[in-house]
Design goal:
The structure holds 2 protein chains of 2 kinds. Helix content of chain A is 23%, strand content 29%. Chain A has helices at 29-45, 71-84, 113-120, 124-132, 226-233; strands spanning 10-13, 19-22, 50-55, 59-64, 97-104, 136-141, 148-151, 166-169, 173-177, 180-183, 188-190, 193-198, 218-224, 241-244. Chain A has a 7-stranded mixed β-barrel, surrounded by 4 helices. Chain A has a 4-stranded antiparallel β-sheet with strand order 1-2-4-3, with helices on one face. In chain B, strands 1, 2, 3, 4, 5, 6, 7, 8 and 9 form a 9-stranded antiparallel β-sheet that branches. Chain B has 5 helices and 22 strands. Chain B is of the alpha+beta class. Chain B has helices at residues 37-47, 188-194, 222-225, 268-276, 290-305, and strands spanning 5-10, 14-17, 55-59, 63-67, 71-84, 87-88, 93-97, 102-118, 148-149, 162-164, 173-179, 199-201, 209-214, 232-233, 238-241, 247-250, 257-258, 262-266, 283-287, 311-313, 315-316, 344-345. Chain B has 2 domains: 5-165, no CATH class; 173-299, Cyclophilin (Beta Barrel). The chains are: A alpha+beta, B alpha+beta. At the A-B interface, strand 3 and strand 4 of A face strand 14 and helix 5 of B.
């Protein structure tokens, strides 16, 4: 095998599980955008034998019934589609949304904000501004259902994970490491530092659209006081508002 | 619907499981469902119902259940001590419970995951298209003493008790491994050596996965273990190599993404073998080619649809009839050999 890092993207036939299309070997915005755009294009084709199209941080898994008679044709079409465009520079697929999420960056809601700001080399006020100024993209969902990895933050936020684990952060914890934010769906131990908290619930059991976020969506945190966040708890989606992304 | 079954007592690892909920990988939810999916299909065949029916999955030990009305049950997967009102029951078989009868299921004799199926399937709340508890994702909960369960309509309430000739998968063996997109990160000598090693499950095995320790030393996989690979989508059956070189076969409740290098994928025909292996059972890996993997998948599906043809009416051995001495036996002849005469057609097979 030649050095795989020299030719992205690549499509692997997983035999039992369809195809894995990878756009890089590290998490970066371009590879992630490519995955989101390619997955949307595959979905739009509604190819025979396809059971699921899932987006990872920099990859797309197209699950195909291994015994479907159309398997070979579908794989060929996936290859053609991959070669047809420069996916990292593809425009974001239509239908993505911008979520504005009220979040508190004060007191008990932000137990490690000062520590994280120091590691990033800025003041607490500058840190809040850096984390909330621009919408972040949902790179992928994982670890718990509906739980987003958001990015990408400026290079100063390339913070290592903590050596030890925080025994438990609450649901809604906004945590930071490696130029990304993870918004926790459930109470959980973590090596990421908690810098804020919101009331947005990432899984809505029984709802028509049980997982509000999709890869490619944009999320912007809106700083509010702890008292305002307490009020937001009672509102649908913890006060998060969704609109079509510009 | 009114309760069919009440839980009188329960071991800690009992949940309701079905075929799980595929299709939510991108949202961070792994498929979940029964650790031994073949056992689900076997229970469905024994009761003549859909393999989509939900059943109790019992990890290591079962519990006590009271029938609130007449119902049919089936027992599959890991073999456990089971009795109805003190009468020993055959495993991999279906049985009848009369109203008020108490079913007692003890510890596993072979295997890890046993299943208690009921005619019509357990009728619990459906969440995201499935009744399966997915505890790591906080869907559903453990079965608790005092719980009552309703069932769906039994397709054949008067159905005969049956038994099923099952494929043995409860005591370790060989796991056929399909190469995956990261297999070549492991040098050829490492991949070849893998087939010569014997593994045993480590104590922390769970529905999330089965970590394996090499018998008599090191697996020699740690050379690749330090590799940084980008987090990617993972699925049940994938074999990840953890930071310390331990291979781990991912189970139905695994996470959806993983950043450890993956050796390959345990073929779905053998995943239940990995999940069922009790502590101390030997497990080995054998590579198969993509062509072999496809052929095996076709065979696996054919075997699953053929299960109803492997049923036979359940007949009880004398040793299983507790009140033998009180019965009128034809001609008064009792064989001393339990293997000889299936003397007594099971009353429940009327």
């Amino acid at each position: 095998m030649t050095d795989p890092s020299s030719h992205w993207p690549r499509l692997d036939d997983l035999v039992l599980d369809g195809a894995l299309v990878r756009f890089g070997d590290r998490v970066d915005d371009a590879a992630n955008r490519a995955a989101v755009a390619y997955a949307e294009a595959v979905r739009a084709e509604a190819l025979p034998g396809v059971e699921e199209v899932a987006i990872g941080p920099v990859s797309v898994l197209v699950r195909i019934d291994p015994l479907a008679p159309e398997r070979a044709g579908t794989l060929a079409r996936l290859r053609d589609l991959l070669a047809a465009r420069d996916w990292p520079s593809a425009a974001p697929p239509p239908g993505r949304r911008l979520w504005t999420v009220p979040a508190s960056f004060e007191g008990d809601d932000a137990p490690q904000l000062a520590e994280a700001a120091a590691l990033a080399g800025c003041s607490v006020a500058e840190a809040i501004a850096a984390l909330t100024a621009e919408p972040l993209r949902v790179l992928s969902l994982g670890f718990a259902p509906g739980q987003p990895y958001l990015g990408t933050l400026p290079e100063a936020w390339n913070l290592p994970r903590q050596a030890g684990l925080t025994p438990q952060v609450p649901a809604g914890a906004i945590t930071v490491a490696v130029r990304q934010i993870v918004l926790f769906a459930n109470p959980s131990p973590t090596g990421w530092r908690q810098v804020g908290r919101c009331a947005f619930r990432l899984y809505r059991p029984g709802g028509e659209d049980p997982f509000p976020l999709r890869p490619g969506d944009l999320v912007r945190f809106e700083p509010v006081s702890p008292a305002a966040l307490a009020e937001a708890e009672a509102r649908p989606d913890g006060g998060a508002v969704c609109e079509a992304a510009p | 619907m009114s309760a069919a079954l009440t839980v009188l007592g329960i071991a800690p690892g009992v949940t309701v499981q079905d075929e799980g909920r595929p299709g939510w990988l991108m949202q961070g939810l792994s498929r979940g469902g029964a650790a031994d999916r073949l056992a689900l299909a076997e229970g469905a065949a024994l009761l003549g119902q859909s393999p989509a029916c939900a059943a109790f999955e019992m990890v290591g030990a079962g519990g006590r259940f009271r029938a609130e009305r007449a119902l049919r049950i089936a027992l599959t997967g890991a073999e456990m001590d089971a009795r109805i009102d003190g009468r020993a029951l055959r495993w991999s078989a279906s049985h009848r419970m009369e109203p008020g009868a108490v079913l007692e299921i003890g510890g596993a004799r072979r295997g890890s995951y046993g299943y208690l199926h009921v005619g019509g399937g357990l009728d619990t709340a459906v969440e995201l298209g499935s009744r399966a508890a997915h505890l790591t994702c906080r869907i559903g909960r453990r079965v608790a003493a005092g719980d009552s369960y309703a069932t769906g309509p039994d397709p054949d309430p008067e159905g005969r008790a049956q038994e099923l000739a099952v494929e043995d998968r409860l005591a370790g063996g060989t796991l056929r491994l399909v190469p995956g997109p990261q297999t070549e990160l492991f040098p050829e000598p490492v991949r070849a050596r893998l087939e010569t090693l014997t593994f045993r499950r480590l104590p922390r095995a769970s529905r999330q996965g089965v970590p394996l320790g090499a018998v008599g030393g090191e697996a020699g996989l740690d050379g690749a273990a330090g590799l940084t690979v980008v987090s990617d989508l993972v699925q049940p059956g994938d074999v990840q190599v953890l930071g310390d070189g331990t291979p781990m076969v991912l189970g139905p409740e695994c996470q959806t993404t993983g950043g450890y290098p993956r050796l390959g994928r345990v073929h779905p025909a053998d995943l239940q073998r990995a999940m069922q292996a009790p502590p101390g059972a030997d497990l080995r890996f054998a590579w198969i080619t993509p062509a072999e993997a496809l052929k095996l998948e076709a065979a696996r599906r054919a075997a699953a649809s053929d299960l109803p043809n492997r049923l036979s009416p359940l007949v009880r051995h004398p040793s299983e009839v507790p009140d033998l001495l009180t019965r009128q036996l034809i001609g008064g002849v009792v064989s001393g050999h339990p293997d000889h005469h299936p003397l007594d057609p099971e009353p429940e097979s009327r």
